[in-house]
Specification:
Layout: H1 2-30, H2 54-66, H3 71-97, H4 101-127, H5 138-149, H6 152-180, H7 184-210, H8 217-220
Helix pairs in contact: 3-4, 3-5, 3-6, 4-7, 6-7
């Protein structure tokens, strides 16, 4: 009797264990783990990698390095911005105060061309991460003060002589940058402005000659 009862108890315990094991196995196959799709078509619903992933960081790093300029290229961009601003301010003043029609027309031409150059230079500077200075060279500030006090032929002469000297200097700088600069975008900008600067200087020479000023050979031969 005791043997029969023990045998029955073993059978009962075995059936209970089998039932629990089967239920656990069946439930596990029907419910996937959290965050993993059992259907390949649902892959697009999974969270995208964060922006701090290795691939994204690498791309950002490359873009940042492309914006850096050498010391020489940066100096050219900054000095050109200051010189361009000065010539714009002086030419706007001349467009209002010049008494000679040729000088007034020249000044208006300068405002148009240098405004365009200023916009183009700002675009290049932004691409390279360079903040352009907002001031003008000190000699140009002093000349602006003199021009504000001058009038008539004195004003026209001061302005045109400065324009000839400034464009002679600019032309030398831009030609050198277009040949020896390191950044291709800055070199391209410099090269594109060489013909315009040559035209401006020739116009300044012609107007000064009409005003009875002898243009130095060193300026006209460059």
């Amino acid at each position: 009797m005791r043997k029969a009862c023990a045998f029955a108890l073993v059978l009962l315990l075995g059936s209970i264990t089998y039932a629990q094991t089967g239920a656990s196995t069946t439930g596990g196959s029907q419910k996937p783990s959290a965050g993993v799709s059992s259907n390949p078509a649902d892959a697009s619903d999974q969270p995208m990698p964060s922006s701090g992933s290795t691939g994204s960081t690498g791309a950002m790093g490359t873009a940042g390095s492309m914006g850096q300029l050498s010391r020489g290229d940066r100096q050219f961009v900054e000095e050109t911005a200051m010189a361009n601003r000065a010539e714009l301010e002086l030419s706007r003043l001349a467009a209002q105060k010049a008494s000679n029609p040729a000088v007034k027309q020249f000044a208006q031409h300068m405002v148009q061309d240098h405004s365009q150059a200023s916009t183009q230079l700002m675009s290049v500077a932004q691409q390279k991460g360079v903040t352009l200075p907002n001031d003008v060279p000190e000699p140009d500030e002093r000349l602006r003060d003199r021009l504000n006090q001058a009038s008539g032929n004195e004003f026209d002469m001061l302005y045109m002589k400065h324009m000839l000297a400034a464009h002679t200097k600019d032309l030398t700088s831009f030609q050198l940058q277009s040949q020896t600069g390191q950044d291709p975008d800055v070199k391209r900008f410099a090269a594109s402005k060489v013909p315009t600067l040559q035209e401006h200087r020739q116009q300044a020479e012609s107007i000064l000659s009409q005003m009875g000023v002898s243009v130095p050979a060193s300026a006209s031969s460059r």
